[in-house]
Protein 1
Amino acid sequence: MATRKLKMGMVGGGIGAFIGPVHRMAATLDNQAELVAGCFSSDPKKSAAAGKAYMLNPSRVYQNYEEMIARELALPEDERIDFVSIVVPNVVHFPVAMAFLKAGFNVVCDKPMTISLAEAKKLKAQVEKSGKVFVLTHNYTGYPMVKEAKSVVASGKLGKINKIVVEYPQGWLAGLIESKSNTIAMWRMDPKVAGGSNCMGDLATHAHNLVRYITGLEISEMCADITSFIPGAQLEDDGNLLVHYDNGACGILHASQISAGEENPLKILVYGTRGGLEWRQENPNYLWLKDPAGTVTRYSRGNSNLCKAAQNNSRLPWGHPEGFIEAFANVYREAFKAIAAERAGKKIPAIDAPDVNDGVAGLAFIETILASAKSKSKWTKMKS
Amino acid sequence: MATRKLKMGMVGGGIGAFIGPVHRMAATLDNQAELVAGCFSSDPKKSAAAGKAYMLNPSRVYQNYEEMIARELALPEDERIDFVSIVVPNVVHFPVAMAFLKAGFNVVCDKPMTISLAEAKKLKAQVEKSGKVFVLTHNYTGYPMVKEAKSVVASGKLGKINKIVVEYPQGWLAGLIESKSNTIAMWRMDPKVAGGSNCMGDLATHAHNLVRYITGLEISEMCADITSFIPGAQLEDDGNLLVHYDNGACGILHASQISAGEENPLKILVYGTRGGLEWRQENPNYLWLKDPAGTVTRYSRGNSNLCKAAQNNSRLPWGHPEGFIEAFANVYREAFKAIAAERAGKKIPAIDAPDVNDGVAGLAFIETILASAKSKSKWTKMKS
Amino acid sequence: MATRKLKMGMVGGGIGAFIGPVHRMAATLDNQAELVAGCFSSDPKKSAAAGKAYMLNPSRVYQNYEEMIARELALPEDERIDFVSIVVPNVVHFPVAMAFLKAGFNVVCDKPMTISLAEAKKLKAQVEKSGKVFVLTHNYTGYPMVKEAKSVVASGKLGKINKIVVEYPQGWLAGLIESKSNTIAMWRMDPKVAGGSNCMGDLATHAHNLVRYITGLEISEMCADITSFIPGAQLEDDGNLLVHYDNGACGILHASQISAGEENPLKILVYGTRGGLEWRQENPNYLWLKDPAGTVTRYSRGNSNLCKAAQNNSRLPWGHPEGFIEAFANVYREAFKAIAAERAGKKIPAIDAPDVNDGVAGLAFIETILASAKSKSKWTKMKS
Amino acid sequence: MATRKLKMGMVGGGIGAFIGPVHRMAATLDNQAELVAGCFSSDPKKSAAAGKAYMLNPSRVYQNYEEMIARELALPEDERIDFVSIVVPNVVHFPVAMAFLKAGFNVVCDKPMTISLAEAKKLKAQVEKSGKVFVLTHNYTGYPMVKEAKSVVASGKLGKINKIVVEYPQGWLAGLIESKSNTIAMWRMDPKVAGGSNCMGDLATHAHNLVRYITGLEISEMCADITSFIPGAQLEDDGNLLVHYDNGACGILHASQISAGEENPLKILVYGTRGGLEWRQENPNYLWLKDPAGTVTRYSRGNSNLCKAAQNNSRLPWGHPEGFIEAFANVYREAFKAIAAERAGKKIPAIDAPDVNDGVAGLAFIETILASAKSKSKWTKMKS
C-alpha cells in the first residue's frame, strides 16, 4: 500500500481528446496518484487552457515536453513527477518516451508504442538501460474477466489450444466511403502522424495483445489482406489475417473501421481440445466457458470462484457493472506497484501489466502485416 | 466549470465497506472534488486507520461526527469541507444529516434517507430552512440510458403509460435459509440498525425511485406481500407489490434477496399505448424500445441520437462500457453544480439528481409497504 | 411403436385460423396420424372449402359436429376416426368434448378446457366414466427444456422452492386502446364466446400450467388485479397476481395483451434455497441454471446431459433449433401412446401430457382470479 | 394450391439417420406430400425394416435404387412417385441423382451435390437436358429471416457491400483429437464416402451458399488454410478463408468441427457503406440491422413489416418460434410448386430454392479451397 500519492505528469491529452481523460480518470480512480504537471498540446495556448481546466498550478503547465523535462528535473526530487503518461499521436510516442526515460522518469505510454519495429527495439534497449518502469496501456488486458480467461487457459481446463478467433470490428469510418469531402483530416489516417498503419495499428494490436495475454501463444506466421475502402485514404481501414501460432494452433484475426453499425465489439474465442471460452469487450463483466458436453457457463466478475487476479482487479461486488475506465485503472494500479518501488529505491517487482516487450511484439506484428499484405506468398514469418 | 476542487468530508466508509469507496471514487472521478476530512467509523482507531489509508492529514480525521462538525467549523472558511457524504447505516442517516445541515454544511446522503417517514419530513423541513444542498444517492438514475428512458417517456413516443413492471431480485441471502448458524449478524437485517425494512428499504426503494424518475408517475395505492424466509429473521427478505399509479396505470414491483443465483439485475419495463421500453442495470449501456410493428431497437450510450442528458452524462464513446461508478459519479457531478453555486453564494440551480423530496417519497413508500403487508384489505393508499 | 397411422378428426380449424393448422402440423409431424375427417366451421360452406383444401374425402367433411359424430359412428370401426381434436372457440369446448366423449371417442382439446369450473368438473366426470383418452393442449409443457426444468426441480438441485416469477406479456391489443373504432370484434374479447376471461384465460392459464408442471406446486391463495384498458371492452386485457403456493413459496404471475411491443415472451423463474432456473419461450432450446456461487449455466436441447424426457422429446441434434410446432407435436406424441393403447383395447398408460385434471385446475384458477379481482380482501383461497 | 398430395420417394434415410427424418418431416409438414416408396439402406434388411417403420406398403420398399427406378416406372403414372429425395452419403449423390433424372423423375438432393466439380457439371447438363425439377437442400436459406436479409441487401438500405464475415464453427469432433481410438469410422471423414473434403464440404458450403443467397455476390478469389487436427484423419476438420468478392468486397469465411463447445452457430454479418446486418442460425427468428447512427434494430419473424418472402415462408405468428424443420420445409414447399407444375405438364415456374447451379457453385467452391490450401500463392482464383 502506497503511503503517499504518486505525482503524475502528462504529455498530450488536451481538452477534447479521447484517451487523455481516460488516463487521468484511470490513474486517479484509486486515490493513488494525482496529476501535478503536464504539456497538453503542441499549441502552448491550448496547453495552458487545459492545465487551467485540470486545476493545475500554472507553473507546472509546459509549452513542450523538452521544457517539461528540464523544469521538472529542476524541482526538488520530492516535488517532481514520479511518472509521465504519454498520450500523444502515435508518431510522437517514441521521441517523447525516449526523452523522459533518458531523463530518468518512469513512463506510462499509450499504444501502439512506436511507429516502427526499429524504434520499438531502441526504446526497449533504453528501458533496459535506464532501469525505469515502462508500462504500455494495452488496457483490455486490465479487465478482470480477461484475467480469468488467462487463468482458465493456464489451468489446462481447455486442453491444448487449437483454434483462436479474435475480432475487432468498428464502423465509425464507414460513412467516409461515400462522403463527398476530399479531405480526410483524421490523424489516424495520416501516415505522418499515425505511422504505416491505421486500422491494424489501432485495433488489431489490441486483438493481438489480447490473444498473447490470454493464451501465452505467439504468432509464427500469417497471411494478411488489408484494404483501404475510403477513397483517397493512404492507410488501410480493414484487415483480415489467417494466423498460425507457435504451438500449431490456427486462427483468424480481423479488425475493421468500416463494419458499419459496429461500435467496439472486441471479442475473443479460444478453443482447446476439451473446451472453449469467449469474452466480449462490450459486455466485459462476464466470461463464457463452453463445455463439449452441452453447457455454456457464464462466470461473472466479483465472485469468489474466480482466480485471484480477477478478484484483485475488481472494485465492486457482482452485478454492479465495471467498465472501460476501471479496466484501464487496473493497468495503472499495477504500474503504481512498480513505480512506487522504483521511487522508493527498491527492486521493481514483476507486475501484471503490458510492458516494452509487448510494445516490441506489437510493432513486429504491424510490420509483419504490412509485409504480408504486399507479398504474393501465402505465409509470411513473424518478424522479431 | 468549477475553478477549484470542492472539499469533501465523509462520515462512515471505513476500510472494507462497500458503498464508502464507491462514494469516494464517484466524487473524485471528474477531478472536481477531493476528500480532505472524515470520521470513518464509530471506532476511533478504525477511523484513524482509514484516514491514514485514504492519505488524509491526521488532523482532519475525527473520532465522531460531532467532533468533525465542531472542528471543521473552527477552520477558516476556505479550508473547511464544502460538503459531507454520509455513508453510515440507515438508522444513523437522520441524526448525522440533521447535525451537518444545522451546522450549515451541504449534504450528500446515501439511501434510504431515514428510517421513518416522520424523520424524513423533519429532514425535509431542515433542508428547506437551511438553504443548503441535499442530494440523495439513488445512483441508478445516474445512468445515461436511464436518462434516455426518461426522455423517451416524456416525448410521448410510447403514448399513455398503462403498465410498469420493475424487478430487483438478488440472491445473496438465500444461503442463510438453510444455514445452521443461529446468528444473523448483518446490519441490514437488524431493525435497530436498518430500520423497519431490510429488502424493501435496500432494493425496492431503488426500483420505486427508478419508476418515478423515468415516468414521472406516483403510486396511488398498493398491495404488498412481504416474507422473511430466513429463519429467525426480524425483517423481510422478499417482497412483491401490486401497484396502481396516479394516471391509471397498473404494475408490479418486486424485490428479493433470496432469489438464489441472481446478482443485481434491477430491470424496468414501461408499456404505453404506442410502445414499450426496457432497461437493465446489469447491461446498462443500452436501452431497448419496443415497437408494436415488430421491432425492438437497441439504443446505446455515447451516440449523438440520444437526448442531451444522456449525452452529457457520458464520459466515453460508444462501445466503451461505463458502469456503476460512472453512474454514481453522475449524481455527484450534478450535486457539485449546486454545491459550487452555494459555496459561491449564488442561487442554487435546479439539478438532475435525487433530493430530499425523493427521500420523503421513499420513506412513504416503505411505510406504505409495511402497512399494506399487515393489512387484510387488498389496497392501501400511498402515505404522504 | 404404432403399426398404423391413427385417424384424426377435427372440429374447428377452418382456413385462416391460427391454432387449427398448428394442431394438424403437430399431429402429423411424426407420421403417426393423418387427418381423415372434420367439421371445420359452423358455416357449412366454409367447412366444405376447408375439407377440400385439406384434401379430405368430401364424404368425411361435415356440416356440424353432431352430424360428424353420427356419421363417423356409422362407419366400420376400422375406418372411423381414432380421436378428435377440438379447436373451436372456448365457449364451445365443453359441449363438443362432452358429445364426442359420450359417443365413445378419444379427445384432444385446446385450452382453456371450458368456460366454467362447473363445466370442467362435469367434463372430468365424463372422462372418468367413459374410460377414453382426454388430452388438453397446454403445449408449452411439450418443450424439451421445460421437461428438463421439471427434472431439475424434482432432483432437489435447487433446494426448497421459495419464489416463482412467471410472466406472459403480449402487446398485440395495445393498439386498440387508442383506436377510434367502436367495435371490438375479436371473439377472445366477447364473453359469449370466450367465457368470463380474455387475457387470463388465454395467457395466464399457460403460465399457471407451466408452474404446476415444472414445480409440482399448487397455488393456495392469490390476490388478483385485472384491468380492461381497451375502452368498451367487457373482458380484461391485463392481470397481475400475487400468489402463495402450498409449500410456503411466494410468487408473482402476470399476463398482458397491452404490453406494447412484446410478442410472446412467456418466461418462468424458479428460485430455491440452493439455486434458480430460468426458461424463456421465445428462445426455447435453452435452460439456464443459476448457481449462487456466481455462475449461470446454459443447458441446451439435444445433448446427452439432459434428462430422458428432454432427450426423448427432441427430434434434432443440438444447435438445430426446434420450435413451437415441435413442442406441440410432443403433446400429440404422448397422446398417441394412450390413444393407440385405447384403440387396441389395452390398458391406457400414464403419459406425460396435460389432461382433464389440468383443465379443472385451469378453470379453478380462472374463477379464483375473477373472484379475487372483485374482492376487497387481500387473499382469496384457491377454488377447487 | 395443389389439388392432390405429391408422392414422395426416398433413397437413404434409414432408421437412426439424421437428415432423412428431417427431409420426411419437412416434406410432409404442410400436407402437400406423402412418402409412398423408398430404398432406405444399401442393406436390404435395413431398408425393409425402415419401410415398415415408416408404414409403407412393402411392395414399394426396394432393395436398391436401380430396382426402385425400374419398379416405379412400371407403375401406372398416377401411382408412381412424383419426386425422389436423395439423402445418401455424399459420394453416392451423383449416380443416384443421374439415374433418377435419366429415368424422368424430379429430384430433391441433399448437399454437397456431388463430390467433384466435374460430376456437378455433368449433373447440371442432365438436369437441363431432362427438363425435370432439381432442388438442392441448402436448407438455411429457407429461414424467413434469411429471406428478409436478402431483401434488405437488395433494397440498397445497407449501401454497397464491402465486408462479409460468415462463420460456421462446430465442436463435435474436438473430442477425437485426444481420443486413444485408432479408428475414425465416421463416413464424413472417409474420402471414399465423403469426397475430398469433410468440414468444408459439410459446413463451409452452407456458409458460402448463405452469402450468395443474401448478397448475390460471388467469390472471385480466396486464400484457404485448412487443417486436420484429428490424428490420422485424411480430411480436414477446420478451415479458414480470406475471400474477395466480385464487387470488390472482402471477407472472412470459416468453418470448424473442432471448436470445442460450439453447437451449430452458423452466423453471417454483412457490412455496407450505410449499415450492417447480422443473422444467427441458433436464434433464427430474428434479424438485426445495425445503423451507424447508433442503433441496432431487431426484426422478428411473423410481422407485417417484413418482405413478402419472409412473410410467406412463416407458418406461425410472431413470438411462436419456428426452427430448423420449418425452414427445411420452406425449401420443399418451393420445390412442390415446381414439381406440381411439371407433373401437370405446365411450364415449371421460377422458385425460391437452391438448384443445380447452386450445387455447381458449391463444388467449385470446395475444389478451389482444396487447390488454394495446397498452393503457396496467396490468392487462388475461383474455379468455374
Protein 2
Amino acid sequence: MDSALFQENERTAAVTDERQIADLGPFTTERGYDFSSIQIAYETWGQLNEAKDNAILVCHALSGDAHAIGWWSRLIGPGKAIDTDKYFVICSNVLGGCQGSTGPSSLAEDGLPFGSRFPIISINDMVDAQARLVDHLGISRLHAVAGGSMGGMQALAWSVRHPERVQKCFVTASGAAHSAMQIGFNEVGRQAIMRDPKWRGGDYPLNDQPKDGLSVARMLGHITFLSEDAFGQKFARRLQGKDTFSYHFGVEFEVESYLNYQGDKFTSRFDANSLLVLTRALDYFELKDLRAATAEFLFASFTSDWLYPPHQSETLHQMAIAAGLKSEHVLIDLPYGHDAFLLDGDVQGARVRAFLG
Amino acid sequence: MDSALFQENERTAAVTDERQIADLGPFTTERGYDFSSIQIAYETWGQLNEAKDNAILVCHALSGDAHAIGWWSRLIGPGKAIDTDKYFVICSNVLGGCQGSTGPSSLAEDGLPFGSRFPIISINDMVDAQARLVDHLGISRLHAVAGGSMGGMQALAWSVRHPERVQKCFVTASGAAHSAMQIGFNEVGRQAIMRDPKWRGGDYPLNDQPKDGLSVARMLGHITFLSEDAFGQKFARRLQGKDTFSYHFGVEFEVESYLNYQGDKFTSRFDANSLLVLTRALDYFELKDLRAATAEFLFASFTSDWLYPPHQSETLHQMAIAAGLKSEHVLIDLPYGHDAFLLDGDVQGARVRAFLG
C-alpha cells in the first residue's frame, strides 16, 4: 500500500479567495417549500470556451464543499483527468450545506438561523439549485457531471432530471439508494447529534452547536470511510505517543487519537443541522431506473468499499444498460475503502480521462 | 436465509431464579488493584458427575450475562451440542459486568457505586475470577471452556493462564487482539457515553445514567453485529408503520426504529461504565502465542462476520498449530454477520458436539 496515499485528505478545504456566491433568487423545493431567495457558493477552474460546451460540474459528497480542487486534487487540475486546461470545471456547495450555500445555519428573513425551520430537502433539490447556478453562468449543456458518494447521487439525479443538459455522467463509489445498513449508520450519527442536549431541537446558537454529538457522528463516519486493511496499515495497534498503556479511558491507541481529532476538527467547519439535512436527503434518495436519462455513463467502484459496495455500482450500470444507454462499470481493486474514490487518481483517473475525452 | 433465525436474540436474558451469587472474598487484579471482596453471579445447568470431570464453562460476550441458556439457546440445552444431559454447564457474569457480578455499578465499601473508582481490568482478570468460581464449585479441571467474541478471548486466556485446568477450548467469532478498526468502533461507543453530560466523569447516580450516550453506543454495536446482507434481508428500505415518508428527523425506516429500540432497551439493563470497562479490556487484550496452552482447540468463524473477520480465527488456529496443539478452524458460510455465532446452532453445533464428545 502506498503510504503517500494516506496523507490527510483535503476534506477540510479552506474557503479560498476564488469562492463566489451566486444569489439565485426565489427557489421552491420538490416538496413545496418556498425560499424567498437562495445563495449557492461555488468555485470554477479553467476557461469556458466560446461554444460554452466544455463545462464539467463536479458534485461533492456529504462533508465536502465547493473547493473540489482540494478534495479531488488527484482528479482535477491542469493536465489531470478532469483537465482544467481543457475544461471549465464548476463545483458548488450543496443546498442544505454550510460552506456558503443556503442551509440550516444560514440566516432566515428574521435574522435568525433557519435551524429547525430549514425544510427537509432532496438530492433533486440540490441538483435543481445547481441547475440554476449553471443557468446563472450562461451554460445550457454540461459536457459532464461527475461525483462520488453523495456527489454520485447528484450526478445520477442530473441525468434523469435534466437529461438534455448532461452529455456524460461519471458516478463513483455511489448507489441508486441507501441500503438498510447505510441508513443505519446515518441514523446512529443523527441520534448522536439529536440526543446531545445542545442540539436543542435544532435551534442552537451558531457559536454553541452540539459539538460532542457532531464529533461522535463524524468519528463514526471516518470508520466507514476506511477499510479494515486501511485501518490496519495506517494504525495497527500502535499507541499514541507512548510505549506502554496508561490504563484509563483517555487516548491509548493512535486510532483513538485520530478519530477524536477528526471528530473534533469537523465541528469547527460543519453545522450539525446540515449533517442531519444531508444524511436525510441521502437516505430518501431512491433511483428506480435511468429511462429518463440520455447521457453516457461511467461507473467506478472499489473492492474494499464496504459503505458503498461495488454491487451498488453494478446495479446502476445494469440500469443504464436496461435504459439502452452507453455505460461502463470499472471495479477497481484498491484497499482504501470508501475513501478510495478520493485517493485514487491513477486507475480512476485514466478511465475518467478517456471517458471525458 | 431462514427468517426464523432472525427472531430477536435473547441477549436480554432475564435474571432467573436459578441465578446464584458466589462471594469469592478478596481479589487482586492483574495490575494490582485490591478488591476487599468480589461477587460473581452465575448459573449452572445439568449435573456435575462424581469424578467432577464433566464441567464446561461458557463465557459471555460484551453485553451478555450468566444466562447462557438464553443467549446461546441454539447450542446449550438437553440434547444440544453443549448437552446439559451430559455436561455440567456453568456461566458467570464477568467481573466488571452489571448483572450481579462486581462491577462499576456495584456498591463499594462506602455504600456508593464504584463509578469512576472501578479499576481498569483485563480479560485475564475476568478469567481469574472465573477460576475462583470454579474452585468454589469444587472443580479442578474443566472438560471445556467455550465462548464467542469477548467470550472467545476469555476461553483463550483460560487456555494459557490455567492450562492444567482446560482440556478443550472452543473459540468462535473471536480474535487474538483487536485491530485498529475494532478499537475504533469501541472508541466511538465510549465517546458517545463519555461525551454525554450525564456521564459526569463516571460518577452518576444509578437511576440517572447517561442513557443517550449508552443508547447511541448500543445502536452502533447492533450495526456491527449484522452484515449488509442481514440488514437487507431484515429491513430493506421498508418504512416503519406507514406507506409514505413523513419528511422529518423522526423514525422513517424500520431499521431506524429497530436501532433506536435496541439502543434504548439496552439502557434499562446495562450500565454505561460497564461498557467502558469491558470495551477497554477487549481493546487491551493481545494474545501473542499459545505456547503456554495444552488444550485441544476448535475455532469457528463466519464468512459474513466483518467485526471479527475469519482471518482473525485463522491466525488463532495457526498459533495453536505453531504451539504443537491439536486444532481445527471451521469457516462457516452464513450471511448473519457477527451474530452468526449466536444464531447458528446447526453447522457450529455439529462441530462443537463432535469436538466435545
